[in-house]
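Quick one: structure for this chain?
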Amino acid sequence: MTAKRIEGSLRGRQDNSGVEYVEEFDVDGLVAIDLLGRVDEALNDAGVPAMGSAAIIAGVANPAIVVTDKTAVPNGVPSSMRVTVTYKTPNNDNDNPKLNTTGVLSFFSSVSTETVREDKNGAILETSWSGPVTAIFPESASVLTIGPIGYKGTAEVDRPRFSFSLRRRESSIALIKQRAEDFVGLVNSLTWSGFPPKTILCTGIELTEQGDELRADYRFVYKPDDFDFDLIARINGRIPFNVSTGVNGGITVYSLYDEIDFNALPVSF
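Got it. Here's what it folds into:
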């Protein structure tokens, strides 16, 4: 299939509720045997802006103006549809594809944990330390140097104590399925909605039907000190007072989750 923006079709208006832009695309090469199938193909063609995607103004994406509506109608031949795309400045739940865009923050009194011995790439959680015996036992007068001593440990991959979810209208089951496969179980690789990298974990994307509408819930958990794991050496059960993240310093940082740019999601808050 090929989607082509119709030159000169862009038009816009502005009133007290905000800004609205409309543009049209011709989508050719549709192959579904029934009309409904061809409509679905046209609305979800890769060349047609997705629901919730930002308008491109002067070459820059403007997240304040997003796609809120798409309409497909036959375009003279069975293999072609004309798609009208509407962008709006969301101002209420009736025309806002990003329902609850400020996020819903809720607290939990417990956590679920998973004990792991490897990082996300399968590397054993291990570190090493070397130093004077007085670093472990300050009361000792000995100047004997110990190490380097290897140390292996386990990590508890925890689910942070607070989370939020975002709900929005959707137009494609297949698109939500793909987002779930891409994002669930991963952490943000870059700053997203003001949160630093590796502090947000996507825990679920769920789709429900409400009448003739599709609604998706995007669920996340937040961990202020990020989702990396610091393995700290213990000698005879005690942590040396001079541990550091340097070579043989006794602290090794591991990444336990794969990462992806959450800015590719159509939700923010």
